[in-house]
Design a protein that fits this description.
The protein is of the alpha+beta class. The chain contains 3 helices and 8 strands, in the order αβββαβββββα. It has one domain (21-127): Dna Ligase, domain 1.
């Protein structure tokens, strides 16, 4: 009986934790694991690849300021502001498409739920010569 009660309590805790599906970018990839970030600007198609840890920190800080919640979308969303590919030390890639207040992260859609501006990355294109 005691084992059943413990099992039921564990299930209740797991269900209540999974009901709160708010996430940040840190959930998908930790800053310390990033070895490169490629950014594509959606309006012009310009691409830049960054390999500087200071820039990783800046970009991930901007992205981690976004609190997101997973959403279901039935329609294909076309166009984007920015498309980022984060690559980790093991070669794993995380793709992030920024679509105004919607982010597509590895084929899943997330809505930005906190009231912060969508990050801009134009400064990285200006710095490149």
């Amino acid at each position: 009986m005691r084992k059943i009660l413990i099992l039921m309590l564990g299930c209740i805790i797991m269900v209540s934790c999974s009901a709160n599906n708010k996430v940040t970018i840190d959930y998908f990839m930790k800053e310390k694991d990033v070895v490169s970030i490629q950014i594509t600007e959606g309006r012009t198609g310009k691409k830049i690849e960054l390999n500087d840890r200071k820039k990783f920190k800046d970009i991930l800080t901007k992205l981690n300021g976004l609190e997101m919640q997973k959403i279901q979308t039935r329609e294909k969303i076309k166009g984007y502001l920015y498309f980022l590919t984060l690559k980790d030390v093991n070669g794993k890639k995380t793709n992030i498409t920024i679509l105004d207040n919607i982010l597509k992260i590895n084929e899943e859609y997330y809505e930005i739920i906190n009231k912060v501006p969508v990050p801009e990355f134009e400064e990285y294109f200006i710095m490149k010569k």
